[in-house]
C-alpha cells in the first residue's frame, strides 16, 4: 500500500512539472538563468583574454626596455672612451704648449707659466669685486677670529715667487674663523705679489681699482696632512686663502720691515736658498679681524694648476707699502744668479670672469 502511494506521489510530481513547462513565466526564468550563465562564461573568457594580452604587452615592453638599456650602455661606454681620449689629448696638448711657452721665455722646462689658462674652468681666481657682484650675508657678519701667528719662526724664499714659510714642524701657525664652524687652518705659506706701478701689482681688484701689491695667506685645514690633499675637499673647506691688498704710500710699513731686510739674501731664484725672518708677526697684517669687513667667494689657486677648490677671504681693509719697499721687491729676479736672462720676479695673473658667482660680504657695501 505504501509503495502504491509513493508511485502516485511521483506521478503527481511529474504531472506538475509538465504543467509548469507549459507555463510561459517558468520558461522565461529558465531562459534567463541560461542566458546569465552564458554571459558569465563569455565575460570570464574575455577577462582571461585581456589579461593574457596585457601580460604579452608587458613582456614585449620589458624585452624592448632591456634592449634599449643594453644599447645605451654600449653608447655611454663608447662616449666615455671618446671623452677620455679627448681629455688626454687636450692634456697632452696643454702640457706641450706649457713647455713651449716656458722654453721661449727662457724658464726651466719644469716650471709652468703663470698665464696658461685651464680648460673648462668656471670658478677661477683672481676676480674683480664690485657692489654689483656682492651680496650682504648676515650669517658671516661679526664672526669669531682666532689667529696664532705670533712667536713663530719664518723664513723667506725666492722660488717660483716670493714666499714666507713657517719653519717649525710642530705648533704650526693657525687661523680660526666662526664662519667655517671654528675649524682650524694651518698656515702653509705666505705669497707676495707686486707689479711695476701703483695699480698693477695686486691679483684682486676692488671696484676695478688695482693696487700696488697683494699678500696671500695660504692655509690648509688641519684635518689634512698637506695642501694637495686639502684641495681635494672643498666642502670642509679644505683650503682657505686670505688676500690682503696694499696701496702705495710714502712711509714704510713697519710690519713689513723684517721681510724687506731679508730680501738681499734672496734676490735670485736659487731653489733651496732661504733667509730667516726676525721679529716678524704676519698676524698684524690681518686688519679685518678687528673691523670684521671682508668678502668670501669660491675660487681657485692663482697659480698652476689652478684647482677650483679654494675658499677665498679678501680683506676690505687696505694696508700700505712704501715706494722704497716696492723698489726693493722689484729688484728680485725669478732667474738664477748669473743667468743670461735677468727677469723680474713678477707673478700677477689676469682677472678671471665671475661666471654667475656671488661674492658674500660681511658688511653692507654701497
From TrEMBL:
<protein>
    <recommendedName>
        <fullName>Alpha-carbonic anhydrase domain-containing protein</fullName>
    </recommendedName>
</protein>
<feature type="transmembrane region" description="Helical">
    <location>
        <begin position="49"/>
        <end position="68"/>
    </location>
</feature>
<dbReference type="InterPro" id="IPR001148">
    <property type="entry name" value="CA_dom"/>
</dbReference>
<dbReference type="InterPro" id="IPR023561">
    <property type="entry name" value="Carbonic_anhydrase_a-class"/>
</dbReference>
<keyword id="KW-0812">Transmembrane</keyword>
<dbReference type="GO" id="GO:0004089">
    <property type="term" value="F:carbonate dehydratase activity"/>
</dbReference>
<dbReference type="InterPro" id="IPR036398">
    <property type="entry name" value="CA_dom_sf"/>
</dbReference>
<dbReference type="GO" id="GO:0008270">
    <property type="term" value="F:zinc ion binding"/>
</dbReference>
<dbReference type="GO" id="GO:0005737">
    <property type="term" value="C:cytoplasm"/>
</dbReference>
<keyword id="KW-1133">Transmembrane helix</keyword>
<keyword id="KW-0472">Membrane</keyword>
<dbReference type="Pfam" id="PF00194">
    <property type="entry name" value="Carb_anhydrase"/>
</dbReference>
<feature type="domain" description="Alpha-carbonic anhydrase">
    <location>
        <begin position="98"/>
        <end position="363"/>
    </location>
</feature>
<comment type="similarity">
    <text>Belongs to the alpha-carbonic anhydrase family.</text>
</comment>
Amino acid at each position: 500500500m505504501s509503495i502504491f502511494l509513493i508511485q502516485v506521489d511521483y506521478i503527481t510530481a511529474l504531472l506538475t512539472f509538465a504543467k509548469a513547462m507549459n507555463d510561459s513565466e517558468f520558461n522565461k526564468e529558465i531562459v534567463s538563468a541560461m542566458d546569465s550563465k552564458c554571459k558569465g562564461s563569455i565575460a570570464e573568457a574575455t577577462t582571461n583574454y585581456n589579461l593574457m594580452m596585457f601580460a604579452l604587452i608587458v613582456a614585449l615592453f620589458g624585452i624592448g626596455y632591456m634592449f634599449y638599456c643594453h644599447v645605451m650602455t654600449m653608447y655611454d661606454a663608447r662616449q666615455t672612451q671618446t671623452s677620455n681620449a679627448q681629455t688626454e689629448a687636450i692634456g697632452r696638448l696643454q702640457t706641450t704648449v706649457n713647455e713651449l711657452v716656458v722654453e721661449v721665455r727662457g724658464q726651466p722646462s719644469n716650471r709652468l707659466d703663470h698665464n696658461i689658462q685651464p680648460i673648462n674652468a668656471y670658478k677661477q681666481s683672481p676676480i674683480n669685486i664690485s657692489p654689483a657682484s656682492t651680496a650682504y650675508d648676515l650669517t658671516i657678519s661679526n664672526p669669531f677670529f682666532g689667529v696664532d701667528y705670533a712667536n713663530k719662526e719664518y723664513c723667506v724664499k725666492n722660488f717660483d715667487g716670493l714666499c714666507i714659510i713657517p719653519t717649525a714642524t710642530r705648533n704650526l701657525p693657525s687661523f680660526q674663523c666662526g664662519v667655517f664652524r671654528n675649524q682650524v687652518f694651518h698656515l702653509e705659506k705666505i705669497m707676495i705679489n707686486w707689479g711695476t706701478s701703483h695699480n698693477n701689482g695686486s691679483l684682486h681688484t676692488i671696484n676695478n681699482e688695482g693696487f700696488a701689491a697683494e699678500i696671500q695667506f695660504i692655509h690648509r685645514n688641519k684635518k689634512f696632512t698637506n695642501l694637495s690633499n686639502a684641495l681635494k675637499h672643498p666642502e670642509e673647506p679644505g683650503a682657505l686663502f686670505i688676500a690682503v691688498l696694499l696701496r702705495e704710500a710714502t712711509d714704510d710699513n713697519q710690519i713689513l720691515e723684517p721681510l724687506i731686510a731679508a730680501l738681499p739674501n734672496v734676490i735670485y731664484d736659487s731653489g733651496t736658498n732661504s733667509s730667516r725672518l726676525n721679529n716678524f708677526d704676519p698676524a698684524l697684517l690681518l686688519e679685518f679681524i678687528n673691523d670684521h669687513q671682508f668678502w668670501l667667494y669660491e675660487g681657485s689657486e692663482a697659480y698652476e694648476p689652478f684647482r677650483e677648490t679654494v675658499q677665498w677671504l679678501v680683506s676690505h681693509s687696505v694696508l700700505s707699502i712704501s715706494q722704497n719697499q716696492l723698489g726693493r721687491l722689484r729688484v728680485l729676479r725669478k732667474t738664477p744668479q748669473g743667468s743670461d736672462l735677468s727677469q723680474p720676479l713678477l707673478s700677477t695673473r689676469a682677472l678671471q670672469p665671475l661666471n654667475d658667482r656671488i661674492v658674500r660680504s660681511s658688511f653692507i657695501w654701497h
